[in-house]
Structure formats: C-alpha cells, structure tokens
User: Fold this.
Amino acid sequence: ALNLPLDEEWHLTVPATSANMGPGFDTLGIALEVLNEVCVRWRTDVDTFEGIDPFTSDPQVTLLGEGVDSLPRDATNGVVAMVKRGYESTVATDKMKLPIGWMEFVCVNRIPPARGMGSSSGALVAGIAGGMALRGHDVTTSKARNILLQETAALEGHPDNVAPCIYGGFQLCYTPRSLESTMEIDTDNGELGDALTRSEKPAQYISRRVEPPTTPPLAVLYIPDFESSTKETRASLPTEYSVKDVVFTISRNALLIHAYSCGEWKVLDEATRDRMHQPYRGDPSGFPLSRLLKAAQEAGAHGSFMSGAGPTVLAFAGGYAMESKASNVTEPATPEAMLQASAVADAMDKAAKAAGLTGRSVVTAPSNNGVVAQMRRTVDVDKMSDRIPDLRD
Assistant:
C-alpha cells in the first residue's frame, strides 16, 4: 500500500559527498554539510485528478536551486525515476504501481550537478529511499540501508559516493573477494528485489565508517563554474600503472585512514596525495589543479584534493568543527577557525582567477548524517524556497 496521507509528505535530505579524497580511488568518500532536499506528496497544481492517468502522465516536478535550467521536470527526472524504482521493485501488477501522475516531487538542490560533489549519487539515494519509504519501509534500519547501498552502488558502478550519502561520515568501501567477479544484483531490469530475500544474500558492496577521535577540520570547496563528466574523466585514466606509483598511492591511502582515525591532521597534506587519477584529471586536461592545491597548502590547509572526478577541489582547513547539540549540524568552532578556512578559500579563488578560471568557494564541514527520511505535514513550496542558501554568495 502507498504510505502517503493526503495532507502529509515524505521529506528526505541527502548530503553532498566527496569521493576518492586523493589516494582512495573508488574506495573512500566523505559526507558534507551541503544538503539536497526532496519532498514527495500529492500534486497541488490541479483541483481534480480526473482525466490524469496515474501511471502514464508526467508528475508535477518543482525544482529549486542548482540545476533549475538543465534538469528535467517530468518522469525522466532522476529523482522521480528512482522513487518509482524504489517503490515498484516488489510490485507485479499495475494496481500497485506508483501513481506518479497524481504526485508532486519538490527538489531543493544545493549540490551543484556534474562538479564532483555527488549530485547523481544524491539523486539515486534520495529517490530509492523515498520509494522505499512510500512502501512503508523504515530506511533508518541497517537492513534497509544495506539494500540502499547494494542497489545504488550497483547503479553508480562504485560505492565511494553513495556510501557516505547513505551512512554519513567518512566511509571506507570494498567488495568481498568472493564476489569480485560475480554480480548478485541485476541493474538492467530495474528490480530492487524482495527486501527480505535481498538482505539474506551476500553483500556485493561493504562500507565501514572511519571514526575520528575528534571532530574533523572544516571543508573548503572551490567549485568551478564548468561541469565535468565522470565517464569522460575516467576514460582519460591509464589502464596500467607502475609498481612505484601503485606503492606510492597505497601508502598514502593507508596514511589517510590512519590520520583520520587518529586525528593526526598535520599529515593530511602528504596523506591526500596520489598518482592514480589526479595527475591525469588535473593539469594535462587544462585544469589548474596543481595551482589550486599549492595555493590551499600555502594558505594553511591541512590537506587538499580533487573532489571525486572534479572539477571541485576540497581542502581541509580552518582548525576544527564542533557538533551543535541542538540541531546535530556542524558549525565553525571559533571565529579564528573560520578565518583560517576563509583564508584558504580566498587563496584558491585568487589562484583560479590567475589561471583564467571562474567559480566560487564554499566553507562547510563534514557531516555525520547520511540520508534522512521523515513524514511531515505538507510544507508550502514558497516557504521551502526561502530556506535555500545561495552558494554563490
């Protein structure tokens, strides 16, 4: 049955994510306090549903924030498609399919698309989690989150963005050795499978949280104005590497996990270096990555790296953040910490401008929270619009 009262809505939030973190190619990722929101409710732009086919008509799609000029406003919207997938995965008849023609999807986007900040993973996780919630599943349970991980990682092709989007924090991901050459999940027929049956199968992807002893530093993002395709940047990577480069990257990957788990932030500059992907996605493509990384380091950043496939660059800087007990939202610990982070942001801005690059800097923090789904009274869209922070400020 459809779990959606007439006067209520499902409200979901998902964090931006930064994958790879330098040496952790396809294995490491961290959640950030830049949140997308999705609301799923009965549509409000018509007085009656008479004449609207619930299964073949397009839904009402409202977009706010990033991507409003490029993202679709119909059933092909990524969030809408994933909500439908998550809901209908165990349904065999039209009578139990999701009546998207009678529904409204409000997407409040703060994660810029195609910038290496996990926008596509956020759409996958929010969508499938929303569909599961509509079917009556509690997405806060470990079983439900494992289902989310298996499905979204299979769709994405790697788990390092979706894992922190689901669980929050710093996530270390891997595939069990016995399953490296086999795929338990069919990603072509659009079926999520029965939840109970799926949970009893071996996991194709596994993620473990790396917990620091103290709250980690702030995250400074330099977000270029241009978009980048992960598929295209992956195509630029070598198919073979020297033993020397592999050893270099493995050692930094281990050092990064050690530094984060022990709170040794002073070694992050060395720990975030790699020779697997950044040397090929950066300067050779015409993107001034080395100049941005150098500017961040000279301004006092603990460590910096290309976020995901880029072009966003992330620098850990500005002292540390602390968790607000009232809202569970990370905030700057001190004015001094924010000043330090701002100095790094200014330095990356200046380096980018000197290289002829346009973009913007954002100071945020790692997020402990992954996807959150809550049912609430329907909120007016205009009120939601008032709550959208402009990342361009």
Remarks:
- The chain has a mean pLDDT of 86.
